Every structure is written in structure tokens, then in C-alpha cells.
Amino acid sequence: MDEMKLLIKRHKILSRLNVACLYCVIAVTLIFMIVGADSDEYVMLSLCSSILFITEYILSLFAYLKKKTVLIAIRFVEVVVFTFLATALKFDMAGTMIVFLIMVATVVEYMMIFRFESKMDIVYAGATCFVPLLLGVIIRIDTGMQWYFYLELLVAMIVFVLVFAYLVYSYYNLISRNDRKIMAKERIIESLKEDYDKISVVQNKLITVNDQLNGKRIELERAYNNLDRTNKEIQMQYTLIQEFSKTLDLESIVDSALRKVLDTFKLSFSATVLYDNDDNINFKCMHYDEENIQPAIVKRLERMCKDTNMCQMFKELEYTTYDNSVTMEKYHAIHEFGIGSVLVAPISLDDGYGVFIVGTTQYNYFRDNIFFFSTMVKQLEMFIINALLYEKIEIQSRTDGLSGLYNRWHLSNVYADYVNRINEYDSLAIAILDIDNFKRINDSYGHPFGDSVIKACADKVKEIANENNIFAARYGGEEFGLILPNKSYPEVLSILHKLQDAINDEAVYNDEIKKYISYNVSIGAAIYPNTCDSINMLLTRADKALYYSKEHGKNKITMDNINLYKEEQ
């Protein structure tokens, strides 16, 4: 708080006393006017006081009272006016007291404008107050009075002014000390306020920094999550490559990939389906979250993958696509299981096409992980192609190129496997059949037609083998071998007769002579333990039975029996 604020504060306090005196003067004036008493002095006092107070009020409205010189001037004028009124007008006792109080209040207000930092301030304030009082005394001079009376009055006035100035000086020092305390407290408060403002600024900066740190923390968390996700994806790819490299078995590769993807990414289902060019399913492998998804989703997935529209979409798919808001219209087969997001990736094959499908109950799931799934499916695609190629090569290595049946090498491996596990079967039968007079067919119609006869015979063997769930292979040349596990003697004989009848009923068309040529087969069979008590002799005994058929009329079936050996002896 500065000096002018203190002056204005004191001015307001003392002005209340002046206003109160003015109200008293106006009230007395009105009373005198009402009762008809002499009130000219009171009217003059009221008028002058009102003019001064109105002037002061107008100056305060325009903020002139905030200037010290204006305050000194207005207060000095008030001292002069009220001194003149007190000395020039003749009041009764009440009027004299009112005028005296107003004059004292005005003098106090005037003196309190000065700071009284030195004695010169006291002299200056006293002198300026004394001049109006002296003029008032001079105005009241009565020639009938003795001169020493005026001298005494003058001395009394001087003493009064000095004493009054000293009292004001003492009072001012007292309130100045209080003001200094107040100012010190206010400075402390202002300092504290400044410190608080500084603290607020620092706090706001800290809040801003904290917000920035939170933003950085969120970015770091997002980066960490992305890094962690990327690390998991890389680890997953490395694990899958290791798993894929262990085997060339198609089912093992796909099953391992689908299970790991399902568990790692907490998916609801995963599936891989391979098609031929006619949209027929050649291979499928499907897994689902057994804790949260119903098993029926597997059947629904199969139904969806067989749907003509879906097959067409899979066939035309060129890149990985996803739907983060699954609708009933597009995925009606799996929508009821609560699936929210689905990802579909194409698998390119040489013969046909394939599709990789994963889904989850979460919506908006497939976003930052699209690249991983696309890359993983490409790796899976490569291993599937290798597995199919290996399977194709393996099938070719086990298959006879002309007949389409398994070759003798594979027949030997399968027969050895049955022998090793003979305890698992009730019986095991071996049958060997041979095309009768095949050399004559080759000599008469040429080897190409002989190949046609072998192929036609192989087709009938394959047909009967598939119907009865038995193993069939080309044994060599025009010979074929059959392995019949868990078949009784009558069942083996019945199957062989059915095969013989099917062959006898068929003829092969010859393009050169434009006619059908029929052919026959001879068959020999042995059954362990029915006809042969040694499993290691089973193939030999079947071959002997065939030889017997060939030597005794051909186009017949011979079952292994003891009589065959008696005839040889």
C-alpha cells in the first residue's frame, strides 16, 4: 500500500465525521426554520458545508483526490471557510459546538495529509493552519477590548495549534507504525502472492511437463506393446519355421501352425482348407477355443468352406483381407458364435487353391498384426507346397506309373509291416493274380495294347480293393498282389471270385482291329493261419497256388492247401 492509498483511506474515515456534522447542521437548520427562530447562521453554515462537500464529491468522481496537491488545496480551503464561519458568524452554544467540531475535523484532515517525517512538517502544517485562525481573530477584534487580551488570545491560539499539531504528529506516528505493520504484512502477502503466482507458474509448467511425460509414457507403452507384439510375432515365425522344418507331413505342418496361432493370439478358431480346381476339398484342418467356443463351429466352418459363393471368393482372393465387424449377411455360418473379427488369407497352389482363416470374438482385432499373418501364411504356403510336392513324389515312388496301383516295392513294405504286427490281426491273406496268355496278347496285338490290358485289369483290381478295404499293388509284369487282413477263408474266396467275374465280364477295345478283346486271370491265395501256419511262408505259398492255377487250366482260383504239395511229390 503506497502513501496516496493511506491518505485516501484516512480521508474516507474522517469524511464520515464531517458528513455526520453536516447532517447535524442541516437538521438544526431545518428545526430552526420550522419553529420560526433565527436561522441565518445555520443556513449559511449548511450552504457552505454542502458546497464544499459537493465539490469534494465531484473531485473524487474524477479521481482528483488521488493527487496530494489537490487534497492539500481542498483541505486548506475547508479550514479557511470553516474558520471564517466560526469567527464571522454569531452562533449560539449548539451552533458553536457544531462549527468547532467541523473546524477541528477539517484541521485534523488537513494535517494528516502531511507525513511529519521532520519538525519542519509540523511547523509548515501549524503555520498554514494558524493563518486562517489569525484572520478569524482579526475579524472578531472589538475596539472595546484591551490589547493584551488579543495578545493572550493570539498566544493561546499559537499554543493550541502547536499542541494540536504535536498531538496529530504523535497520532500520525502511532498510526504510521500501524500502517507500516499493515504495509509489511501486505508486502508479505504480496510477496507470498507473487511466490504463489510463481509456484502456480511452476506448477502449470510441471503439469504441462507431466502431461508431456504422460504422452511420452503412452507413446513408450505403445512402442513397447508394438515391440513386444513384434517380438512375439518373430518368435512365432521362428518357432513355426522350426516346426515346419522337422517334417514334410502336410497334416503335421498345418496342425502345428493352427494350434500355435490359436494359442498365442487367443483366437476363437483357426482353419486351413485346400481345394482342387473343381472346388472340391482335398484337405482341411480346423481348431477352435474349446473353453469359450462351441464345438459346432467346426461343422459350421466346413459348411461355410463348401459354400459355392465362399469358394468363389476364396479362389479370386489375391491378398490377405480382414473384416473387423463381422455381419450376419456375409458370415452367417459363424456369426451366431459371437465372432467379431475374421481374417482370410489366400494360399496359392500349383493344382488348386487354398485358404487360411482365423477369427476372434473381439471386434477391431486385426490391425497392426496384418503383416504378421500375411507373412506367416506365405511361409505356411511354401511349406504346404513342399509337403504336397514331397507327398506327390512319395506317391510316385510307391505307385506304378502304368496301372496306377502301388508298386512291388511298396507292396513289400506294407507286407513286412503286416508281418511285424501280425499279433494285431486274426488272419492275413495274400493273393496273387496273373493275366493268362499275356505274352500271346503282346505278340498278337502289340505291347501298347498289352499295356491297355494291364491298365484295364488294374482298374478292376483297384475297384474291388476299394470296395472291400484291402491293399492292392502291381506285383510285376502282368501280375498283381492283394493283401487281405482279418478276412476269413470264405470272405477271401468270395472277394477273389468277384474280382475274377468282373475281369471275365470285361473286354478291352483294340483300335487297330476295331474289336473288343477279352482276357482272363489266374489267381492263387494263401491265408495265415488257415492254410499256412508260417507267416514267413505266406507269400511263397500264395505264389505256388498261382502256379497251380496256371498249370491246371488257367482262369481259375486256387486256395493254398496241403494237396498242392502232395501232387508235386
Short account of what is shown:
This protein has 17 helices and twelve strands. It has 569 residues and is an alpha+beta fold.
Give the overall shape: rod-shaped
Distance between the first and last residues' Cα: 146 Å
What's the Cα radius of gyration? 64 Å
The ordered H/E elements are: HHHHHHHEEHHEHEEHHEHHEEHEEEHEH
**Overall number of strands:** 12
Could you describe the largest sheet, including whether it forms a barrel?
Answer: 5 strands, antiparallel
How many DSSP helices?
Answer: 17
Strand content: 5-15%
User: Strand sequence of the main sheet, in spatial order?
Assistant: 2-1-5-4-3
What number is the mean pLDDT?
Answer: 79
Structure characterization notes:
With 569 residues, the protein is an alpha+beta fold. It is built from 17 helices and twelve strands. The strands form three sheets. It has a five-stranded antiparallel β-sheet with strand order 2-1-5-4-3, with helices on both faces. Strands 7-8-6-11-12 form a five-stranded mixed β-sheet, sandwiched between helices. The protein has a two-stranded antiparallel ribbon with strand order 9-10. The radius of gyration is 64 Å and the shape is rod-shaped. 29% of the residues are buried.
